Amino acid sequence: MNKATQTAAIDKTLAEICREFRLPAVASEAQWQRLLECLPVAVRRRFECYSLALSLSGDPFERRRLQEALAERTVPPGAAHMLEEALRLAAAPDLEARFYRFLGSDPQLVAVGLAGRMRLYRELLPSLVAAVTQSGSPPRRILDVGSFAGVVTVTIARVFPQAHVIGIERDVRWVEVARDLARRLAVGNVRFEPADCWAYNPECSVDQIWWLFVTSGQAPEDLLGAILSRARSWLRVGGRLILLERWQQDVDLLIRSAARVAGLAIGDVLPVRWHCPAEGDQLQRTNAYLLDRVS
Known about the structure:
Rossmann fold; 7 strands; 295 residues; 12 helices
């Protein structure tokens, strides 16, 4: 496929997913908030509590400020309980896992979670797919780590119909959502497995690994070595890792150092930007790293 054909296939697949899940068009934070207001009150409050906890987990200064405000009783009484619960959740090492279990617990929440991400997928996937197909032979085996609802995995499978695509996701409820999505769209070259990426071993080496937003809530210096060494062990010689995370700090030097240790070469650094209505209307910017196993 050329770039125009790839983009058309991506747009078509994402449009089909929206129809299958009856997802409303969500292009702004205001539309996202209106969608949240349709949830039952208790579910919406729990969702908001998790969202606050996720933002606090990476911001120790704001956590300390809120803890002091609670201790000094300067927080409005109606907000104190949610803040206390959000702070408790923010300290949990498995916060993201808990959030995604909650998000997958109800079909209405599944739709809310997907609707908030579709603009992100539309803005990111065409440039990433174009970048990974500029060089090398078409991939035969692709691994998508942290496949969530299967949107990226199924889209990749459509763009690379000659490839066998595997999506792994640790939460079995999201695995079922992804399998259902593949069935509805009649995508036969994809399968989904419940697996933790830190314990998973593929049946054989793969040509591509897609690692998108898997560990965003954790410090990169604690993870990069493990991510890249595992990726190298899964890739065939000449295979490629597509690495994109939402780390708050500049990780270029960390990635270059970890890549040398792991035996991977940086093939390209792709500036990417996107909007995610579920995270506000601000333009998000970072780099995607394309790393190759050369030996």
